[in-house]
Amino acid sequence: MSIEIKTVKINEMQMRYFSFGNPDKEAIIILPGLSVKSVMESAEAIVAAYQKLSSDFCLYVLDRRGDVNEGYTVYDMAEDSYQALREIGLKEACLFGVSQGGMIAQVMAIRHPEFVKAMALCSTTSRVGNGEALKKWVKYAEDNDAKSLMEGFADDVYSPSFLAKYRDAIVSMADAVTEEEMKRFVIMAKATDGFDVYDELEKIKCPVIVVGAAEDKVLGAQASVDLAEKLNGELFIYEGYGHAVYDEAPDYLDRIYDFFIK
Q1: Are 223 and 194 in contact (CB under 8 A)?
Q2: b vs e for 137-151, b when ≥16 Cβ sit within 10 Å of the residue's Cβ?
Q3: For the chain, domain boundaries
């Protein structure tokens, strides 16, 4: 199956995306988390993984903008994403934000509430604290040490049972990481520095589900609890999973589907 990667252009900003599912149904925007390689390179795998949603929704997966400079922030990402979606032709949509993508979703819902119909916030936070895992990843990337970056990333986001099967495969991806991708990763990771919208969450009026993991080493389970309480949203915390529970828990998409189909 070949997925068409499209590009939306606004002035000097370009952003890649792809869509799949039922074009006659409600739109869900998938806002992925921080990654070393572009999610566009995994388009076919993403489409296959999200078949649960594809009959009843039209799904869009957004990349980050093509050109980024030092000082780029999550707030900038949110505005770029919103402008790109409007340029594509969407007037409203549901948001499915994972990790850094969940931060982007919150900013979009705060700044453009008329656009966001409902929101799933997964393994994310409304305020970034010390971010020890992120700092470690940034250090590896600044040193252009792709192997250590992929090792650290894998160990921090996945559960021991998942790592037992796939750690070597994940780490081997370091061989394909370019120096340019490492530089871009540093900018994207640092974009979360100082992120804090906790005191603005009351501006979000749409229905929200928050899904976290008890063993999240990156942002912590308490971040999900705080989000759900502040937003008066649904909350589910998976036991025995880490930050990447969205890739591991077999019923994860069932839970997201049930929320959006209401």
Answers
A1: no
A2: bbebbeeeebebbbb
A3: 6-128+194-260
Distances (CA, A) of 173 to 132, 139, 146: 23, 18, 9
Integer Cα distance of 93 and 177 in angstroms: 33
The closest of 202, 8, 209, 25 to 109, measured between CA atoms, is 202
* Rounded average pLDDT over 34-44: 95
Q: What pLDDT score was predicted for residue 261?
A: 96
Q: Tell me how many degrees the CA angle 28-96-15 measures, rounded to the nearest 5.
A: 75
Mean pLDDT of 29-47: 96
Report the pLDDT value the prediction gives residue 1, as an integer from 0 to 100: 57
pLDDT at 221 over 70: yes
Superfamily of domain 6-128+194-260: Alpha/Beta hydrolase fold, catalytic domain (3.40.50.1820)
